[in-house]
Prior knowledge:
The structure holds 2 protein chains of 2 kinds.
Chain A: H1 16-35, E1 44-50, E2 53-59, E3 65-71, E4 74-81, E5 84-90, H2 96-99, E6 109-112, E7 117-123
Antiparallel strand pairs in A: 1-2, 1-7, 3-4, 4-5, 6-7
Chain B: H1 5-24, H2 44-54, H3 57-75, H4 78-101, H5 106-129, H6 138-162
Amino acid sequence: MPTRSSRPKYRPTLRDTLIVAAIVALGLIVAALFYAKATRGGSVVVTVSVAGEVVEHTPVSQFDGEHVYTGNGYTLTVSAHDGQICVSHSDCDGQDCVHTGEIRRIGQSIVCLPAQIVIRLESASPGDADVIVG
Amino acid sequence: MKVSAKNIALCGVLSALALGLSVLESFFPLSLLIPLPGVKLGLANIVTLFALYALGSRPALAILLTRCVLGSLFAGNASALLFSLLGGLASMGVMIALRRWDKFSVFGVSLGGAAAHNIGQIAAAVIVLNSTAVLSYLPLLLLVSLFTGTLTGLLVSLLLRAAERLPLR
Lengths: 134, 169
């Protein structure tokens, strides 16, 4: 039965490692779900959604160049070149989307929360046999 | 903790401190180093965790809610309230549970709270964006929470030791 102690434990205890282990395990599970799937030589699709609505679903090979998206009053410029995609410009305050840099692998994404825009790389055929890459 | 003018004033002071720390941490943009949406030092959690140990769960919850509501009002951003509330309530729930269980130190409770805070904020992002793509940020955010949770735990541990002789309750 959980009880409340009158005096807190000021020094780290061995039991605290259980919490660390639980956090690490959760991170690994989520990472495995998102990044374990990858295809070598398979086709990659870029999906752009604004406020939950998909506005772009294009093979990355056909996505080269600059694309402008607007969401929630903010404007993002997405640049794509040779399968590498980044947000080259955004007028949001945080600039997290710009600082994310380039994405090139399935499962990677760039998120701009103020604009509610998500740019994500996905496999063209989710049912294909996958290879786990390190 | 009994409801008295002194205790209400104390909660007010701590709420103001938490609000001030929230504003202060915006001057240290951790996102420049770690470009993840929602990554922060979590300085305001120092006050929340301190209040949980020094005053109890109800005052700590009141301070958290006050900080979240006022913070979003000052920011002028309604979605900020959702992020603050989901993150803060998830963190508070986990910290209260770990504190009551009494098997973990201040560090352990802080770590659990930090991780829960990030999970709550990711949940808010999923709701706002209507997309599960942001879940891909969770592993890195959980890794960052190990550091921020340890830092918060260290600071609160020092504060609690210094405040042991103060008649806070």
